[in-house]
Amino acid sequence: MAISGRIKIAEALKSATGITVTVKGWVRSKRGNKQVAFIALNDGSTIHNIQIVVDFSKISEEQLKPVTTGACLRATGTLVASPAAGQPVEIQADDIEIYGTADVETYPLQKKGHTLEFLREIAHLRPRTNTFGAILRIRHAMAFAIHYYFNEKGFRYIHTPLITASDAEGAGAMFRVTTLDMEQPPKNEQGKTDYTQDFFGRETSLTVSGQLEGELCAMALSEIYTFGPTFRAENSNTPRHLAEFWMIEPEMAFYDIHDNMNLAEDFIKYLVRYALEHCADDLKFLNDMYDKELIERLHSVVQTEFVRLAYTEGVDILLKSGEKFEYPVSWGIDLQSEHERYLVEKHFKKPVILTDYPKQIKAFYMKQNDDGKTVRAMDVLFPKIGEIIGGSQREENYDKLIERIKEDNMSTDTLWWYLDTRRFGSAEHSGFGLGFERLLLFVTGMTNIRDVIPFPRTPKNADF
Ligand code: ATP
Ligand code: MN
Fold first, then answer.
1. Are strands 156-157 and 386-393 parallel, antiparallel or unpaired?
2. How far apart, in whole angstroms, are the C-alpha atoms of residue 7 and residue 75?
3. Residue 167 in contact with residue 226, Cβ under 8 Å?
4. Whose CA is nearest to atom 9 of ligand 1?
5. 301 pLDDT tier (thresholds 50, 70, 90)
6. Which fold has domain 2-100?
7. pLDDT beyond 60 at 3
């Protein structure tokens, strides 16, 4: 029996023997002797390669010369049980067609075992490595699972704008969007740049968050989520920050902070469980190669109940810890990742949801507590990562919201539309933002955020 057309290597590896198959992919290695060559071929459908066995009595050694690591080819032949360990089947080739060669002298991925730092310099080729194949498949699976999860729960997917006129929440420095001539911008009477002549007739930037627009839609559709790119021009060259990253932001009418925390915990556990079920081969590879505790850590997060703790209690624990922190701890500080990780990794040894932060360090839209000092914020802190989710119950009271905006010296001019939700049919509501790449750091066990996005955007780096 023959299967016409190409089949994916993932499928071929699971097929019954005796059939004729055609596979297409990139050569990972070629070895052999005078009579026969063994080609390991990969097409990205799985971490596993399929072995193509070429008998020189059928296909000449000469014809196989250009088949080197990195070349792309088609192989057609019979699927047979493999005598080699670790692979159920292999292909006895009848026919090989070379699509594209890869010069041995110049193809950078000749050998295995390149460092992640080196691979970052060849981001255009690193998808061809086992590591990035695994990461990109997991990234896909997580994106799919996110939509699946919310769809099942009746949340609507909302596309919020990427170009915005509001400094959404002071969440981070913004990238300006303009069509003005940077060399000679038009000036107004005060000698300042005249943005009325700009494309949108005002100053605009790339968004740092889709939350504010998300809230508008939640106050109509009840439960919504966004999942899109966000941009922050923060010049912090850390292993956990990107200038362009993807964020998932659910917003829910009629949810208080407890409903919000329950959703966040259930959501993350669902995603980790999904990865364990659907990405087993890729996770095993990453576990074996990079982080021997990865799979164990993923299982443990699914099984444990997250700690829920007020910021004030968290600060007490840090103060009593006797630990020497680089940044000293006192009530009112914005916790550094060393503090977050102490609570999660050393003190509780499980994920922590920290709530009720001082209002000075949180955004204006968070609901104020009756103590006049704290707001109903909830950050989810994870082992190895620190903050993975930032969220809150939102302030639904118009007057209190205005008061906070004034306290923060913000202008209401660009926020009037947001304030309207509190003037017309306001209600209790909540939401949070999950950084997609922070989630992927946790799920893949990678330690640098540049390694979980195909083409990272960081300070001084937008090459590929
Ligand atoms: P951090 O304190 O870690 O810089 P943040 O408090 O500024 O984060 P939020 O504004 O609360 O972040 O954004 C929500 C989520 O988006 C964070 O919990 C995190 O997962 C993710 N995130 C924030 N900034 C970045 C970034 N520069 N790169 C990647 N992910 C980010
Ligand atoms: Mn935050």
1. unpaired
2. 11
3. no
4. 390
5. very high
6. OB fold (Dihydrolipoamide Acetyltransferase, E2P) (2.40.50)
7. no
**For residues 39-63, average pLDDT:** 97
Helix residue ranges per DSSP H, 304-454? 311-320, 337-341, 398-407, 416-423, 436-444
- The full set of domain ranges for the chain reads 2-100, 126-173+208-451
Q: Is the pLDDT of residue 148 over 70?
A: yes
Q: Do domains 2-100 and 126-173+208-451 have the same CATH topology?
A: no
State the burial class of residue 134 (Cβ atoms within 10 Å of its Cβ: 0-12, 13-18, 19+).
Answer: buried
In the structure, what pLDDT confidence band is assigned to residue 86 with cuts at 50, 70 and 90? confident
Closest-CA residue, ligand 1 atom 21, reads 435
Structure tokens given for 134: 């695994």
435 lines ligand 1 (CB under 6 A): yes
Encoded tokens for 133: 């194949």
When pLDDT is averaged across residues 449-456 and rounded to a whole number, the result is 97
Which is more confident, 193 or 411?
Answer: 193
- pTM (global) more than 0.90: yes
Atom index in ligand 1 nearest the CA of residue 242 equals 28
Give percent of the chain above pLDDT 70.
98
**CATH fold of 126-173+208-451, please?**
BirA Bifunctional Protein; domain 2 (3.30.930)
The Cα–Cα gap between 100 and 123 comes to: 20
Dist. CA 387 → ligand 2 center (Å):
7
Mean pLDDT for 84-90 is 91
